Structures
1.
Amino acid sequence: MVRDSIRILQAQGHKATRPRKLVLEVLGEIENPLSPYDIQGILHTRGKYLNHVTIYRILDLLCSLNLAHKMLSSGGFVKCSLDATEGCHRFMVCQHCGAIREFADKELCQEENDFAQNFGFHTEHHLSEFSGLCSRCYKK
Amino acid sequence: MVRDSIRILQAQGHKATRPRKLVLEVLGEIENPLSPYDIQGILHTRGKYLNHVTIYRILDLLCSLNLAHKMLSSGGFVKCSLDATEGCHRFMVCQHCGAIREFADKELCQEENDFAQNFGFHTEHHLSEFSGLCSRCYKK
DNA sequence: GGCTAAATGCAACATTATTACAATTAGCTC
DNA sequence: GAGCTAATTGTAATAATGTTGCATTTAGCC
């Protein structure tokens, strides 16, 4: 919910401004990754105007607080749907409808770490997106 | 080797042009991800000029033939160092020296597919990068 | 209501990416 | 090796995306 994000913002000493609420509103509604200009466009159709610089800055903030993620493959932004404490976050991206599903799995994470360790590599973060078909689109 | 890539290009009916050789040469030498303009700059210091449009097009082609990869984390391009038949490709990216190590592992791939399957997701591709410290930099 | 730091808007600019079309060239044939 | 042609590259113009410094506005406090 948008309300939760606002609360977290404020708890960290950030203000609950109109532009921030608007951006969170859009990210909360739309499941597909959105670019800053996408967000601007969507708000525009609703008669609300935000400067693109503002949107860039808000998205930076949201990402730094783990309230949003920047998708690596597309560069678009999505609202974070997991608790920050759940471990390394990954994504399933449906090639058909574009919907994102976020998940976390500690076991898989550990296996990957072990795998890398065999090569002498010391892993700090996992960047991982699976692309394919979500259950809905697969049935069709 | 660059020579191998050229052979693959030609086998697929593409011409072995001077610009393509130059781009492959740079990607073959430098281990870190390079943007199109990086490549242009490097060539420039060597007294060779390529138009950026050409470089964009060449990189598209190389990626479509799996002779290069676009890195998720940086958006930069690296030369592919594995055989295309080896399965899904992943990367270890050293945060310190920036070096990329590419690898493939069918078991890990299968586990990830199974994991996604539990959510009803049908995986087609894995995009995966580990960031951390390579063996060299970890020792320091 | 008034104050102040934080946040936004604005303008200008920098960087990165794309398009349409003209010029060039690799690889073929003779 | 000269000539041909489709493929490729270069050019120029433009679009899209991202950044910076500074003036203006506003949320949250008293």
2.
Amino acid sequence: MTKQLTFKNLPHKTIERLSQYRRALLLCLSNGKTHIFSHEIAKIQHITSVQVRRDLMLIGYSGTLRKGYNIEELINLIGNIIDSEEGINVAIVGMGNLGRALINYFTGKRHKLEIVAGFDTNPDKIGNRFSGVECYSITELNKIIKQKDIKVGIITVPADQTTETAKTLVKAGIKGILNYTPKPIDVPDDVYLEEYDMITTLEKVAFYVKMSDE
Amino acid sequence: MTKQLTFKNLPHKTIERLSQYRRALLLCLSNGKTHIFSHEIAKIQHITSVQVRRDLMLIGYSGTLRKGYNIEELINLIGNIIDSEEGINVAIVGMGNLGRALINYFTGKRHKLEIVAGFDTNPDKIGNRFSGVECYSITELNKIIKQKDIKVGIITVPADQTTETAKTLVKAGIKGILNYTPKPIDVPDDVYLEEYDMITTLEKVAFYVKMSDE
DNA sequence: TTTGCACTGTTATAAATTTAACAACCATAA
DNA sequence: TTATGGTTGTTAAATTTATAACAGTGCAAA
């Protein structure tokens, strides 16, 4: 009869929104705000206040009537849910523009989630650091992944190297893969896979723009 | 009683999958294949064959029993649905790593969808070409958008410039925006907006990796 | 022929997700 | 004191999306 103690069955979309709420809340906090209403969060995220309240209900957080939610408390709670206590190490395979862009985005922002290695085949890149992240040869991938206890791999290699890269990562014992190439990959069931295809998204935007014309 | 002639109410997810089917089909075609079964498409995309058949039903395409779908025909049909006949011009605002990565991805691949301009504030970039795309000063944005009839804008600027960039694009009359910064933006109802946040996705992967441990 | 099989196309059902509806609460003002 | 208004938390309904079930079809083998 007690509240759930694990968060294993939170809806996927709720997990995504929690991450977004946290980012928005951190910004509010840095602006000196201490409390926030559900409709304020909703406005920022382009969703309804009901959805916000429902998500917070699912994680068992209660606000104060007419005062809203305590921003700091909520940030901490979301952290307890989505972060791993001991932190998770991440590697980027493919240090081209996209790989380096991702490193810039992340570096120094999420202390519980750190990019600790980059990999590439280009000898000019190997040995260098990009925003503080060292680039290794892909031939060392297996070794480094184990050495640094890397659990998540981001694939940003050219499309034709995607399949091979994924295999290498899986063989090295990676637990989660985020594939940014347009080529879908196959992974064993025990590896969590998320794929995002920028071309698809742009084509979708173009489609709805076209539709609005007709 | 006739079949639908417009595709305005295709599910959003179907639109996304159509784009992905096409990409997979183009690859198959270049490998010399002429026909494909629903379960083959499904395997590539990590979905079920039912879903594939359902999507194709929605767009009114019929395959041949025991022979599958004609790849070339299907590619053309998908093109008729999601592409705009006269093509759509796209601009990228923010020619950092991410912007340049996107240009590399797209250039020369989608003839009905072309990146025709980049914008930045950095004087070192302005006037240069990146993978054939010229970089203009952001002060010229309004002029160039109209001159080149650009309908879609991709935002890849640093987070703190996001809001301003979005405003500028909207004011210039853009019809669709794809926002890759972690900062949500507001746009009028007649502008189609798609936001994608790389940090959220990585945090999601990390969450499910953490969960699989517990 | 006939039977079985491997597909497609479609309708029916289920699952996931969002939205609506509303009771409960309490600060404030009349 | 009593009403008003704004906000939370929760249950119910609607919508969207995915899955299952199955009829229909025609090739291939017996």
